[in-house]
Amino acid sequence: MLALDIRNINKKYEDFQLKDVSFQLEKGYIMGFIGANGAGKTTTIKSILNLTRIDSGEIRIMDKAMHTHELELKQEIGSAFGDINFYMRNKIKTLTNVIKIFYHNWNDETYYSYLKKFNLNENKKIAELSTGMKVKYRLALALSHGAKLLILDEPTSGLDPVARDNLLDIFQELVEDGEISILFSTHITSDLEKCADYITYIDNGRIINSAEKEEFIDAYRLVNGKAEQLDLIKNDLISYKKNSFGFTGLIHTQDFDPSLDIKSTIPNLEEIMIYCAKKEDAHV
Ligand SMILES: Nc1ncnc2c1ncn2[C@@H]1O[C@H](COP(=O)(O)OP(=O)(O)OP(=O)(O)O)[C@@H](O)[C@H]1O
Predict the structure, then answer these.
(1) Which ranges in 8-107 belong to alpha helices (H)?
(2) Which of 66, 83, 191, 265 is the most buried (most CB within 10 A)?
(3) Separation CA 164–CA 271 (nearest Å)
(4) Domains of the chain, residue spans
């Protein structure tokens, strides 16, 4: 079953547009959503959650259309955006008591088990929580109302490497039994190397690629050639940089001719993002 099925979302702001954004997330997996600043990640996530009105397109969550089943689906979605900047002077337990009223499937036992697991003290004030604690608190809330789909906007940003690693382990544990699916946006490509099953890459409002992680990476090769070889391959490169040895460039694997005497390696996600972003600035 698909946890998330996004088809041809279009959304126009004055200076920005989501263009035919489509991707699918299989139930029980983690999808990393990457793209440069301003590429459209948050707008896409807000569109999925109906926090912003789309111009056209279809959003299906767990086989139900969001526009006809929003209230029902919101019970099954756990989302987290930015900071918690309300109820700052109140204790965790006060905020929880307000939030839990909205959820039919709220389970106190599950909630307390997650507070314990995440080392959260319900008597702490929201203002006293570190960034990592806030993310964990949101996860505890989402999981206590039985959320089956977690949609998280940059949950690991602002976390130190240990806290990040810890959170990524939690993500992996959550999807282990195949019931929960996670979509999360990030700039930290090493997070995805560690825990994502699928990658969706958005650039300037368009999906460049959405695929299983290994397949996503395998679609590209990083090539290193001598200066005099550049003309042989230049037109096929997504972008390239000149350096003292010659050049390094990114190419679609299908466009690479192995008979050329040019060394090729498998890029990492960061290199894919950097060279794809350069496409727009012409060849640097
Ligand atoms: N409410 C709005 N009205 C007009 N333009 C908006 C609005 N919200 C976002 N935008 C524009 O849409 C574009 C995409 O923004 P968005 O926040 O989706 O990007 P992002 O990929 O999440 O970026 P970042 O990684 O910096 O968080 C930006 O140019 C932004 O200025």
Answers:
(1) 41-48, 66-74, 92-99
(2) 191
(3) 21
(4) 2-216, 220-281
